Amino acid sequence: MERIILFDGVCNLCNHSIQFIIKRDPNAVFKFASLQSDIGKELLKKHGLNEDTDSFVLIENNKSYIKSSAALRVCRKLKAPWNFFVLFFIVPRPVRDFIYDFIAKNRYRWFGKQESCMLPTPEIRKRFIE
């Protein structure tokens, strides 16, 4: 099963989140692409998501998940203790997404923005789709 995470490649918080996932994904089950890349835009379109989507997106088992649902589904595959975050699925999605949206709305102001997408190291590059 292929699992692809689409992320905002110029967002510092998003880039740090991807680095966090890579370090806690010992089986390398996730692959990555930025929302700004051609493949990212193609995958958004393929899954019926707006090209202007400004959210963390998980494509898993040919289904797409966004916002808090995507983040929690990713946590499910990380090593402990991070996989316990799936317990937040008991919180209703509108409440989870409200918190997600609040952080997303302020992410550039709080964490900054890069001029271009991150450049992964050669050993990590193979996990990025181009």
Automatic annotation (TrEMBL):
This chain's source organism reads Pueribacillus theae
Which positions make up the signal peptide? none
An example Pfam family from this entry, by short name, is: DCC1-like
Coiled coil start-end: none
PANTHER family linked to this entry:
DUF393 DOMAIN-CONTAINING PROTEIN, THIOL-DISULFIDE OXIDOREDUCTASE DCC
Which terms in the Gene Ontology molecular function aspect does this entry carry? protein-disulfide reductase activity
Query: What InterPro entries does the annotation carry?
Result: DCC1-like (IPR007263), DCC_oxidoreductase (IPR052927)
What name is this protein filed under? Thiol-disulfide oxidoreductase
